[in-house]
Design a protein that fits this description.
This protein is α/β, with parallel strands linked by helices. It has a single domain, classed as Peptidase C15, pyroglutamyl peptidase I-like (Aminopeptidase, 3-Layer(aba) Sandwich). Helix content is 31%, strand content 22%. It is built from 5 helices and 9 strands.
């Protein structure tokens, strides 16, 4: 089985993104799952376009999108993506949509099609904090999740997809005492556990 797993490039004032740093540490094969790793731009327009191009060019059984959620202390296994782009900051192209649909005339929301609760439980069993989340926000992370789930619903019915938000890296919070973080190795181990759930072992 083939899995597309993605992480974003740095955005805002950050020079590093924990999602991509962790994804890069993953092996290319997890059991029977072959991983294809791609970095997505933190851009409403370019991230969606890149996802469309990647999915058109090859068969994937799963898409696991990974993004940064600064301030959280546990991996957030997202359950829902909504059809709303409402940015509190500009993306890497200087774009900040307000009250716009991700895809006009598409449904209001989609549920992740990954076994989210099993993933939460499996990660927690390894001693790494994880929890279900019912809001992926309204920035590029949510837009990317919604877009992939819409493609799955309309074009790739075999495709299962979802999103995992991860905490800051320790070096991102050096000057922010009390803000939670996880080493990239720990985050990568949690992501590998999530992948093993998808592989059925």
């Amino acid at each position: 089985m083939r899995v597309l797993i993605t992480g974003f490039d740095p955005f805002g004032e950050e020079t590093i993104n924990p999602a991509w740093e962790a994804v890069q540490l993953l092996p290319h094969q997890v059991g029977k799952l072959k991983l294809i790793k791609e970095q997505l731009p933190t851009s409403f327009t370019r991230a969606l376009a890149k996802l469309e191009t990647i999915l058109e060019g090859a068969h994937f059984d799963y898409v696991v999108l990974v993004g940064q959620h600064g301030g959280v202390s546990a991996l957030q296994i997202e359950r829902v993506a909504i059809n709303l782009a409402n940015a509190r900051m500009t993306d890497n192209d200087g774009y900040a949509p307000q009250e716009q649909p991700v895809i006009p005339a598409a449904p209001t929301a989609y549920f992740a099609s990954l076994p989210t609760q099993q993933i939460v439980e499996a990660i927690c069993e390894t001693g790494i904090p994880a929890q279900a989340s019912f809001s992926a926000g309204t920035f590029v992370c949510n837009a990317s999740m919604f877009y992939v789930l819409h493609l799955a619903a309309t074009k790739y019915p075999h495709l299962k997809a979802g999103f995992i938000h991860v905490p800051y890296l320790p070096q991102q919070v050096v000057t922010q005492p009390g803000v939670a973080s996880l080493p990239k190795e720990t985050t990568a181990a949690a992501l590998e556990t999530a992948l093993r759930v998808l592989g059925g072992y």
